[in-house]
Amino acid sequence: MNLNVRVKNARAKSVYAACGFKIKKKFKKENGVEVFSMELEL
């Protein structure tokens, strides 16, 4: 399962990490927003 979290959203990043999601990469979307791609292996 994959999701994207804005780099500036520390709260969401920590909640997803606590649920087992791991950061796979950081990139910039077309609209200029920097995001982390997070993944959870089921």
Could you say which overall geometry the principal axes of the C-alpha atoms support? globular
Number of helices: 1
Mean pLDDT: 97
Structural class: alpha+beta
Termini separation: 7 Å
Number of domains: 1
Our estimate of the beta-strand percent is 35-45%
Q: List the helices and strands in order.
A: EHEE
Report the major sheet. 3 strands, antiparallel
Number of strands: 3
Helix coverage percent of residues?
Answer: 10-25%
Low-confidence stretches: none
- What is the topology, as strand order, of the major beta sheet? 1-3-2
Q: What is the radius of gyration computed over CA atoms, rounded to a whole number of angstroms? A: 10 Å
Topology:
Elements: E1 2-6, H1 10-18, E2 22-28, E3 34-39
Notes on the structure:
The chain has a 3-stranded antiparallel sheet with strand order 1-3-2, with helices on one face. The chain is an alpha+beta fold and 42 residues long. It has one domain (2-39). A hairpin with a 5-residue loop joins strand 2 and strand 3. The radius of gyration is 10 Å and the shape is globular. The protein has one helix spanning 10-18, and strands at residues 2-6, 22-28, 34-39. The N and C termini lie close together (7 Å).
